[in-house]
Amino acid sequence: MKIYRYLLFIPLVLTFIIAAGQDNDLPGDLLSAEFHQERREKLREKLPENSVAVFFASPVRNRANDVDYVYHQDPDFYYFTGYREPHAVLLIFKEKQQSPTGEEYHEIIFVQPRDEFAEMWTGRRLGDQGVANVLKIQHAFNHTEFARYDIDFSKFDKVLFYDFLDDVRNTRHTDLYDLIAQFKEKVGYPSVTSPSLQVEPMPQNIDLSELHYLMSQLRGIKTDDEINLLRKAVNISAIGQIEVMKAMRPGMSEREIQGIHEFVFKKYGSEYEGYPSIVGAGHNGCILHYIDNYKPEISNKELILMDLGAEYRGYTADVTRTIPVSGKFSKEQKLIYDLVYEAQERAIQAARPGTSFAEIYQITRDVIDKGLVELGIIENITIPHKYYPHGCTHHIGLDVHDNGEYGLLEENMVITIEPGIYIPEGSPCDKKWWSIAVRIEDDLLITKKGHELLSAMAPRKSEDVEEMMKQPSPLDAFVLPDLDNK
Fold this sequence. Notes:
By secondary structure, the chain is α+β, with helices and mostly antiparallel strands.
């Protein structure tokens, strides 16, 4: 009997805890409901007449067995709502609509409902009322209502959404899988008809491409609120680079270096890394997206390339530094490093409204090709080579390679400039250059007449890097027990 009474009491206790802790546990510098509302209005202005844009939350990703990956919201969905939970769909209409009860609305959201038992395991949910009260989306419903909510999509000239990738799990509860299936039925999305395996024709009002261009226009130009969050993310990432410069010692592992960066991120309240951390020593630096970070002991003769970015309140930085493990560049390392620095510096100086993304890349390409000839690594600039195999400029924001247009630079774009030189073992040049990999990447805000170098805090010049590496580190005294000693 005592256990039975206790079980009856649990829902009351949970309701109190959930209600009491709903707002107090959240950071005070999240984007405001007004920001997201204004972004929805900006999209509405761009939508074609008699249209609706549809956005789905990110799916839950399974890691293994009954363990899921930490949930990360779809950037567009977060941009328009601030909602950080799964299993939801948002509709933004060009013109006002009328509900079955006669209410007018021009946006509607369906979200996962409150569930006291689930919340005990996985955390508090907003539910429809929370979304209305906290996120200020007034026409909010639990997603269990979506199937029977009467929306006639055939009346719209355009229904805009991103096509589906068929990578969403179906659980035993109402979830994203069900929302997508219900939406497909509502809009007449074609299905495969067996046994002939012919595909039904796509309704003429479905548009799977225009939304990408509209979102590029919106997200490529940052608001003041977004710039403030990006500035914080960049500063955190730059401080991580500084602390590693001070802490670097031969014999450390790649994973240990990664850990120092990410500890700094967490110390400043960064929720995630903006992308898997790249920490490549020696020849590993020649792998552009090396994320294994397995090397157990770094040699004092090697460079280490560190490409990491803190994600702060949804916005991610992207800062790369390449430093000598010994604290001092060798002759060959310095020649390559200074060449990459020169290419980056010239490109940075050209960054202003009206300069094209293509021009920025070409500046770095010309400097690097000419420098490689002078060093005898290639014979002449007309010979194709793989020592600089990537572009050098992209938007950052809610994604590390953020949505944006790639024509001319405009005021309030936030971009990276990241030239690099990578000389793998076995390259057709003198062996003294082998395993040298250098990338320098910085984040810039394009201003009215020029730019602001947001990541200037982290040293870039080879001499400044060496000087920073002479500084003491608070981690010098942090020594853990040797697990191999018995």
